[in-house]
Queue: 3 jobs
Job 1
Amino acid sequence: MLRLESLALKRLEANELSLGVGIRLARTVDIAQIMKVSGFDWLFIDLEHSATTLDTAAQISMAALDAGITPIVRIPIGDYSVATRLLDAGAMGIIHPHVESADEARRIVDAICYPPYGHRGVSGTLTQFAYQSVNLSEAVTELNRATLIGVMLETPEAIAQADEIASIEGIDIVMIGTNDLAMSMGRPGDFGHKDVADAYQTVCDACKKHGKYAGSGGVYDVGLITKYVDMGVRFLLAGGEVGLMMAAGRQRTAALREIKTK
């Protein structure tokens, strides 16, 4: 029986935090190994808010497979051709931003999943199986199982549809895009506001009801993360490569500035 390993999915199935890191400006494949060694479970290769090309995202995805960290891609809104091409190139998950309804979620599943859940076409090569000759029926069944499909809810209107969205077969992750949600609520940057917290509770309750995983993006305060994890968040975008590099750089330069010259 064919079996694919996904560290991101393995963490989720074990009811552990599945930790991702945003990749927005990195352009070389060594970022996959660097982030795996740093302790992350998945890459969040962001094609919504970056100029990263399809080719670069594909190469990073392939490198991630070899490094043992799960490559997940956030696609531009409605760009299913990018999603399926990157899945053919090695990605093990797709995140679709700004989903507002169950109908949108159904369309995403239909475009990204192989039959019987969707209508995605089969490539002549299956990258995730290292280009080996495999039983096609087993392969597409395993790819349907192991490929994570996530939707981002980023408005109050989307949160109100969380239960219906989470009920769609084929959706694995319902993720709150906290920056855009707080902005749309008139609470920019106030990620601990009661309205935002209530939205997290709504999504977590919907995920528990329908056997899906609740996700969070944009929240980096450990105390606030703990609160949302207690509600049920398990799929956590823990930071981005630029922010992590700058934080480490500031910490290092601040320590060295304390050294007094003679």
Job 2
Amino acid sequence: MQLFYAPDITLPRYTLNEEESKHCIRVLRMRLDDELHITDGKGNLYRCKVVDDNVKRCTVEVVHTTPNYEPLPYKLTMAVAPTKNIDRFEWFLEKATEVGIYEVFPLECDHSERRQIKIDREEKVITSAVKQSLKAYHPTLHPMTLFKEVVTMPFEGDKFIAHCNDTLGEREYLGKLVKKEGNTLILIGPEGDFSQEEITFALDNGFKAISLGKERLRTETAALVATVITSTINKL
């Protein structure tokens, strides 16, 4: 299946943008009546046929629509402090999208070494992973958000904070806490970890302290491990 992403798709016919048209006609060598699939990122999967194979404005006709295509049985929200090396954060976005995630909050913390991201660039990373992994749901990427704003925002579900501070009580392994088909929010801090004040603030606002295992993990690795644990629990 060749999957394209078009959040603005119109029925019954839709013209791909120039970049996608070139990929369809030049790279994939599609011609009239060849079939491809398009998702709007909201769960709809459209089976289409090419009705105009112009390399700059390829037009397709929708022949079948599958609504609610393979939704995740859970909702995972990851709030992750972007790394100083943005490639590491983008690696997380790509892999988390492939594994399965609902939304991402780039988190600005006391110890953050990166306080800005190029959201258009990061959206492209997610979109590419959506198409590669054949998903009909496009994860939501929020703008950079202050730690306290995420901690205090309304959230119906289980809330966890992963940290490495051994002086603030016990941390339970995430795999023992995740609920199947649940709504989960997980905070992952920057390279220097969350500050003690941030951890205390999260705990006072209903978050549970968690561990991701005995190993000490990089930010992007910890975020992906938390994503994989949540996905795995829902597949058991």
Job 3
Amino acid sequence: MKKLLALLLSAMMVVSCFAGCGEKPKETEAPESKKEESKAEGESKAEGESKAAESGAPAADGETIKIAYIGPLTGNYETYGRHQRQAIELAVEKVNAEGGINGAMVEVEWNDDKSDPNETTNMAYKVCDEEDVLTVFGPFTTTSALATVDIFKDAQIPVCSGSVSNADWSGLGDGRFFRGDATTQQMCTYFADFIIDEMGLTKVAMYYEQSDWGQGMYDEFVKAFTAKGGEVVYQDIFQIDQKDFNASLSKFKEKEDEYDLFFLVAHLNEASLAVNQMRKLGIDKTILSNNSLQDQVYLDNVGDNGEGQILLTYFGNEGNSDVFEQWKSDYEGKYNENIDSHAFNTTDLINVMFEAMKVSGNDREAFVKAMHEIQDYDGLNAKITMEENGDMTKPLSPFVIKDGQFAAWTKE
């Protein structure tokens, strides 16, 4: 009997369990206030999507748009990296204050590569693993950019550099590489035309940095200059971080009667030392240089030794657009530091990127397509068009250091 009772109790418990599992929970009705909130949210979202659809831009859905910066925030080119960072920060602050990109806030991830190609490579691998990054801003130098081509290309991530000037770089990225500065080919064509057509000179000595960028400038200039009947009668190279230039400059001094113009291709630190030492040696030839020297730091370093030096660049102390002057005032007021060509090029490029993002949202392929379609965009000082290969068309003009400032060059 005890066994029979135990079996009966067990059977009853099993039946009860199955009945419990099969029972549906009672639905609880939401309070009226919650219903109204949900209805309002739905109407708001629908309205936002409708407006986005009308403008052709994607709805933001409260997301952020992320840019990964890779550049020299410390190291030998820290000055340039600082100007790039400040220009990006100012532009991002402005666009976010105006409501972002279709309602999405722009966010920047800062990666310091010290302009060391090994560091740049590590940063590139890291960034390419981050799916929430829409595009990369950088790298800074040609050497770093060339070291990362295959990494970015394999990841199919858009790359926008405000400074890489290697003529071939943009064509290596399957249409996903863009730049905000003139290429070495464009620059050197401007240089050759200016020297021969405007200055009326045909004999040049050239002193350039031993790097991918320096070699590219030398090769492209010789090609463009000789094609117009000019001649580089003497040339030499110097090392990055070199401090003493006297041995090389002494040879330029010996050959001073053979050339009419001294073409210096250098960045801030080396150019400052080289110019001061060449003037001390008595080399009085007019110096022509690249726009990387358009910086107050350079003017302070060379002082009177820089008087008469000519640069081909994008702006001077006067004759600029109202948009440029407002940006200059905002930048210098915020950072208590003068603008330079890298801050200028960075601002033009980041604003073009924002314009493309209005169409693409967080879609990489749509961003690439939108970048290629930029035509006659109002830049800081000129209309901007992105060429088919990702290069940016912007005119260069000659400026001269006069009374410690960059003034418009005029033919005497």
